[in-house]
Write a structure and sequence with these properties.
In chain A, 26% of the residues lie in helices and 23% in strands. With 199 residues, chain A is α/β, with parallel strands linked by helices. Chain A has a single domain, classed as Rossmann fold. In chain A, the strands form 2 sheets. Chain A has a 6-stranded mixed sheet, with helices on both faces. A two-stranded antiparallel ribbon of chain A has the order 2-3. Chain B has one domain: 2-Layer Sandwich (Beta-Lactamase). Chain B is built from 3 helices and 5 strands; from the N terminus they run αββαβββα. Classes of the chains: A alpha/beta (199), B alpha+beta (137).
Chain lengths: 199, 137
């Protein structure tokens, strides 16, 4: 497998040729926990806590119904894509107050899937900025919420200010097939990148 | 299925579980991937356990500043539950050892045993940075 980007603390044994660590990121309430839970072949790790009144004015729930918990540490799931490739999915919390943890979870990851919501696209900029700071390649998957507006791809690309080579996919985080396609788009993007990018 | 981790070290972990009242032992990398596990825990559960411990370690480390300590000074994290404990200790650069036990375990003995194991296994229990990835083109 391709090597992860360099920094201290990347420790995958040399014998591990087929395990790829990927991040699943995105802003608050975009569906990261759902996404990891949908795809994981093992019981996923979840660290959800009930949302409290303390964060009422910080974590904006406008337009989001039925959400009562939020991830405070991380999500984890595993997906065997084929005989050669096992994906380890690490979901990081969306709120800015978890930024340091987010960076720690990113250690050793090869790339990231950024989940986005068309009702609050502007909230994805912070996330993408952080990934660029970490020099972590990413793909963007718009989570197709019921009732959320749909836009043509060129408009979405412009709104998100994506580079031409950055994959943009639409998926339904509740749907296994659709979510798998989003991950495959990311993996293909990572494989297309010149090896020297990682070397 | 594929076996991304090398469980050659598993026997060392099994050895550590000879202490009474210990349950599982896993070895994980700093970035949350399983490196080895004892026979008492399945691979699937061990994968999830490893990911959780890496997150816990990252969070624990981030609280060092509140006791005036250096960020790099993290030694161990002990989780106590009504029915048992999970111990997490550094096992050399880039590797952590997690051992779970019932609430009847001898805390002092297990702490000592973990340190002894880490010392004795030395090089075997570390996961040094991979070679050839040190410079970005």
């Amino acid at each position: 497998m391709a090597s992860a980007r360099s920094s201290e603390g990347i420790y995958v044994r040399a014998t591990v040729r087929t395990a790829v660590k990927l991040l699943v990121v995105g802003h608050f309430a975009v569906g990261k926990t759902t996404f990891v839970g949908t795809l994981s072949e093992i019981r996923p790790l979840r660290t959800e806590e009930t949302m409290t009144q303390a964060a009422e004015h910080v974590d904006d729930l406008a337009g989001i119904q039925g959400k009562s918990t939020t991830t405070v540490a991380m999500d984890f799931g595993r997906l065997t894509l084929n005989d050669q490739l096992v994906l380890y999915l690490f979901g990081a919390p969306g709120q800015h107050r978890f930024k340091q943890l987010w960076k720690d979870i990113a250690t050793g990851a090869l790339g990231a899937l950024v989940l986005a919501d068309t009702r609050r696209l502007e909230e994805s900029f912070d996330i993408m900025g952080l990934l660029e700071e970490l020099e972590l390649p990413y793909a963007v998957a718009v989570n197709d919420f019921d009732g959320a507006p749909r836009f043509p791809e060129p408009e979405l690309r412009e709104a998100l200010d994506l580079l031409p080579e950055t994959p943009l996919i639409t998926c339904d985080a509740r749907d296994r097939v659709s979510s798998t396609h989003a991950l495959i788009a990311l993996v293909e993007h990572l494989l297309r990148r010149p090896v020297r990018e990682y070397a | 299925m594929t076996e991304p981790t090398n469980n050659r070290l598993g026997w060392m972990l099994d050895n550590a579980l000879q202490m009474p009242e210990t349950l599982h032992a896993i070895l994980l990398s700093a970035d949350g991937l399983l490196m080895a596990h004892s026979q008492t825990i399945t691979r699937d559960d061990a994968d999830r356990h490893a990911a959780a411990m890496s997150g816990l370690q990252a969070l624990a480390r981030s609280t060092a500043e509140f006791c005036g300590g250096a960020i790099s000074g993290w030694q161990q994290t002990v989780n106590e539950f009504a029915g048992g404990y999970v111990f997490l200790v550094a096992a050399g650069p880039g590797a952590y050892l997690a051992v779970s036990a019932t609430d009847r375990v001898d805390m002092e003995a297990v702490s000592f045993r973990l340190q002894e194991l880490v010392q004795r296994l030395g090089k075997e229990l570390t996961s040094p940075p991979r070679q050839g990835i040190g410079s970005r083109a």
